[in-house]
Amino acid sequence: MIVVMEPKATESQIEKVSNYLQQHGFKINLNRGEVLTVIAAIGDKRMISTATVNSFEGVHEVKLIQEPYKLSGRQSHPEDTIIKFDNGVKIGGLEKPVLMVGPCSVEKEFEGLLEVATAAKEMGCEFLRGGAFKPRTSPYDFQGLEEKGLEYLKEASKRTGLLVVTEVMDTIDIPLLNKYADVLQVGARNMQNFKLLKALGHTKKPVMLKRGPAASIREFLLAAEHIMFNGNPNVILCERGIRTFDSDFTRNTLDLAAIPVLRKYSHLPVVVDPSHGTGKRYLIEPMGKAALVAGAHGLMYEVHHDPDHASSDGAQSLSIPQFKEITRNINKLIGRIDYDNKASHREEKLKEAKRK
Questions:
Q1: How many Å apart are CA 113 and CA 109, to the nearest integer?
Q2: What are the backbone angles phi and psi of residue 157, rounded to the nearest 5°?
Q3: Could you give the residue ranges of the DSSP H alpha helices within 266-319?
Q4: How many CB atoms within 10 Å of residue 340?
Q5: E strands present in the chain
Q6: What are the distances in angstroms from CA 74 to CA 2, 69, 81, 106, 272?
Q7: In tens digits, what is the pLDDT along the chain, a chain of 356 residues?
Q8: DSSP for 14-49?
Q9: Dist. CA 101–CA 304, nearest whole Å
Q10: Is 60 helix (H, G, I), strand (E, B) or coil?
Q11: Given Cys at both, which of 27, 69, 124, 192 links 221, Cβ 3.0 to 4.6 Å?
Q12: Dihedrals φ, ψ of 243, to 5°?
């Protein structure tokens, strides 16, 4: 239910409506705009009469929401959510798209991770991604370095200033990951792990929620709803491909149409993962560009210092030279970095130094 207050509604009137709804078991989310205040009320609408709510002083109208994703949907939150980090990085709205890059798994050689992180910083990326706890289809595959991997990520972050994105697998690991990570990623396999989503709702750390391989957009938004309903509004949606009938040429089908759909029906930032979405490194650049043109707020793709010998997902990982070339092209496409002006600025600095 949405209660739209009159433009001149007083704080006392807003509080009276909110208290009434809370007394009847509704969870309240206040959205204060420049003109109107909107009260999003989540609960069993059978507990009250909408006519009664409409009769309160200061109430303009009461709307019953048909869509079940009340917190992640635009009806109750028309403005884009922008997630801000302590170092000034922002995701969402009209902010410049962000780039999240790094290996699928953090491996034993810290120097390799640092090499990737250094290259990422050089190319203007904001986030270093890497898995310390790895969910694998086979129990015999590499399962991750766990806390040692988190320590590596944190150290690389300290040396480069990049923010850390890493996957959380279990509720018991949340306190540990909170010490090391800036964004907690929920993998596709865990998109509907409701116990985990509920626990992540109790932390204020931003959560990047990946779409499940067989999840509808409605199910995707409802998974985000679980996190938000439990108190955490800082959710980033990640489209990473869905499973369809054609797996001969791509690992998954990257659902580019989901980007404008999500942006129409949700206010949450949308990031796209063309590495998992295609499973092929040669498809990362064209699909990444297409995702940004379609309105994505950022890209996540895999980079490894030696992809042919990676412990996981080497076929969809870029080498560092490939990464630099592709990222340069992506940066030019969306105007993240003006390389021509940057080069001219360096030349002027050199000339000035010579004159001195």
A1: 7
A2: -65, -45
A3: 274-278, 284-293
A4: 9
A5: 2-5, 27-32, 37-42, 59-63, 83-84, 90-91, 98-102, 127-129, 163-167, 183-186, 207-210, 235-239, 270-272, 298-302
A6: 11, 9, 10, 37, 20
A7: 899 999 999 999 999 999 999 999 999 999 998 889 999 998 877 788 889 999 999 999 998 776 778 899 998 889 999 999 999 999 999 999 999 999 999 998 899 999 999 999 999 999 999 999 877 778 877 777 889 999 999 999 999 999 999 999 999 999 999 999 999 999 999 999 999 999 999 998 999 999 999 999 999 999 999 999 999 999 999 999 999 987 789 999 999 999 999 999 999 999 999 999 999 999 999 999 999 999 999 999 999 999 999 888 888 999 999 999 999 999 999 887 665 565 555 555 555 555 55
A8: HHHHHHHHHHTT-EEEEEE-SS-EEEEEES-GGGS-
A9: 9
A10: strand
A11: 69
A12: -85, 125
d(CA 44, CA 196): 24
Type of residue at 135: P
Q: Helix, strand or coil for residue 91?
A: strand
Quote the tokens at residue 171: 């509720």
How far lies 321's CA from each of 32, 44, 46, in Å? Answer: 47, 56, 60
